[in-house]
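Run: sequence + uracil -> complex structure.
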Amino acid sequence: MIPQQIVGRKRDGGELEPKELRSFLQAYIDGAVGDEQMAAFLMAVYFRGLSPAELDVLVDVMLHSGDVLSPGASAGPRVDKHSTGGVGDKVSLALAPLAAEMGMIVPMMSGRGLGHTGGTLDKLEAIHGFRTRISLEEFDRVLESVGCAMIGQTDEIAPLDRRLYALRDVTATVSSLPLITASIMSKKLAESLDGLVLDVKVGKGAFLPEVAQARELAQAMVRAGEARGLATTAVLSAMDQPLGRAIGHGLEVREAVACLAGGGPPDLRELVVRLAAEMAVAGGVTDALEAGGAMAEAALDGGGALERFARLVAAQGGDPSFLEDLDAGGRGLPTAPRTTVATAPEGGIVAEIDPLPLGYGLISLGGGRTRQDQQIDHRVGFELAVRVGDQVSCGQPLATVHAADEAGMAVGVRAVGDAVRLAGVAASGRDAEPSPLPIVLERVVGS
Ligand code: URA
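>> structure
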């Protein structure tokens, strides 16, 4: 096998034999194919796609590049959810303890920031002391005592995805349907789940912004799960504006905690409740979404979900007392030394809040990576003061920018200006009717 021939064939739109694709991937695992050759291959896949047979090989090799967890004697159905990634998407932080509170076992394995999107692991690490790198033995112990555990990919689980994910992040090859499918499904299949719910984002801030592409991605992932005996459901959800109001790691933890305490922004709560209900159905806890939704609301409003989160934080090395006072110095969440308010340059209706300038703005503030090995600043980010459809007058706050220094404040204010588009208000009323997407657009289930 000559690696450059394989790359060339894919580049020219050819279909690879399962055997040759398998040996190319194996050679990368073994070190005989270099990162530069794999980066070129990923770019070829980005433009040419993969056939169903090629995709099947990629999922299979990624899944078996590491261990498959053993479910052991589980006290409930093992269920997880995974999102294709968005801006302000802090759902997992609330959902894992919530689903555990509803009787599910949630072995959640999450990723770091990818492209313009934030990663759950990076958010968890904003919590002082929280350890996302724990052994699989410790992961099992936390799972058993708390009902949920949250870790990053270890060297044992789908290590090939870990390497490809890092490479894609810095080579503009993230937004590829087969690469996303294989990345997500290899990790999730390795968790030995009874049920899986996929949150496939749609809109400008999603990797695949169009509904048709998102639906195709959802269908491909549901097929990959069902083909391997995993009950898999996908939900298409809105990412045409950031989810909730907070963007940035520490800020997003705060917002997730508000949701766990029964509050938080309505769009975040709606999505968390719906995904919890989907998990309950996928895991057989209930057979009706309405009943699952009611269970989720009761766990959020009754304090059980927040208490479960406190147990999770303690079990993974954090000090849950920060939940009593989120701003407590030292033990609490990190706060940025500088804040400034970005204001509306004119009056109007908020016609758009484009997630992309805010996602990339977070990276510019130091809250994301431009190199694989970079440390990130958990303190920085944005707190939106408006949602699409709000009416604002000139000078009214659009967002608070949390920055490390003066330069960061200027960068952040520019990002808010690029993200928020105001439409004029005609004398007779609105001359532009913004219509944000509904939070949940569609549900995709196996045939
Ligand atoms: N999330 C993942 O785990 N992988 C992707 O490729 C995209 C989102």
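>> summary
The mean pLDDT is 93. Residues 144 and 249 are 27 Å apart (CA to CA).
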